[in-house]
Design a protein that fits this description.
Layout: H1 2-24, H2 29-47, H3 52-65, H4 72-86, H5 100-107, H6 134-139, H7 151-167, H8 174-186
Helix pairs in contact: 2-3, 3-4, 7-8
């Protein structure tokens, strides 16, 4: 048991310098940061009303000198964007001057309106309503929407609290709050 452990420790000591050397050959944080910054600069030019020549030059510079440590999808995007700007047969998609219909056709759906909003629904808006005869719809009484138990009473309590608070002229009235707290439990008895 002592000999096996000794061999393992010796083996780790032999391989440790090679592991450290391999880690030192990777991209530095500074290099990756500079590549990221230059990519974001080129990407920002796409959003601005910059000339196609300026955009093409920016993407060419990024592809030629700033791909170290970058992900494959960024490199592919930059290469495709440079090729699209370099070819005169296909005009570039200028976001600032394109209509929303053009963007929707290009992207396969409507454009997002906010980074925090959920994606828009691209399925059909509503399924077709079943065909009902006008006589049947006229004869059927209209159903009221479902309401929670005690909702009518709660609405009355809220109306009383609102009218009391308005009489206080915007100042928090402890008497209004106290009356509201006393009113609400009665709605659920």
């Amino acid at each position: 048991m002592g000999v096996g452990r000794h061999c393992l420790v010796g083996r780790v000591r032999e391989l440790l310098p090679f592991a450290l050397l391999a880690a030192a050959c990777g991209p530095s944080f500074q290099a990756v940061y500079e590549c990221d910054v230059h990519f974001e600069h080129c990407y920002a030019l796409e959003e601005k009303a910059a000339s196609a020549a300026l955009k093409r030059q920016c993407w060419r510079e990024w592809v030629d000198g700033y791909t170290f440590g970058q992900s494959r999808d960024r490199i592919e995007y930059a290469t495709k964007r440079y090729a699209a700007l370099a070819s005169d047969s296909r005009p570039s998609l200028d976001v600032s001057s394109a209509s929303s219909e053009t963007l929707a056709d290009h992207a396969g759906g409507p454009s997002p309106t906010s980074a925090f909003a959920p994606p828009p629904n691209i399925a059909s808006a509503q399924p077709p309503a079943p065909a009902a005869s006008s006589a049947a719809s006229a004869a059927a009484p209209e159903k009221s929407p479902l309401r929670a138990p005690g909702a009518d009473c709660g609405d009355a309590c809220t109306q009383r609290w609102t009218s009391c608070s308005v009489a206080c002229k915007g100042v928090a009235c402890p008497l209004c709050d106290q009356a509201y707290r006393a009113c609400m439990p009665r709605c659920f008895r």
